[in-house]
Amino acid sequence: MATNFIRNIIFLPHIRLRFLHSSATISPVPPPLPTIETSSSSFTVEFLVNSCGLSLKSALSVSNKFQLNEKTPQIPQAVLQLFKSHHFSDTHVAQLIVKRPQVLNCRIHDNLKPKFEYLVKIGFEGEMLPHIILSNPNITRASLVSQIKPSVECLRLFLDSDEKFLTVVKRGSWLLTHNMKILLQPNVDVLVKEGGVPAHVVERLLLLHPRFILHYPERLINAVNSVKNLGFETTDKMFIQAFRVMLQMSESTWNKKIEVMKSLGFSEEDVLKAFKRHPQCLALSEENTRKTLDFYFNTMKLEPQTIIVNPNLLGYSIEKRVRPRYHVLKVLESKKLIKGSKKLEILVISEKNFREKYIDQFIDEVPGLLDFYLGIKEAKSSVLDGEEQDYRKTYC
Question: pTM for the whole thing?
Answer without folding.
Answer: 0.74
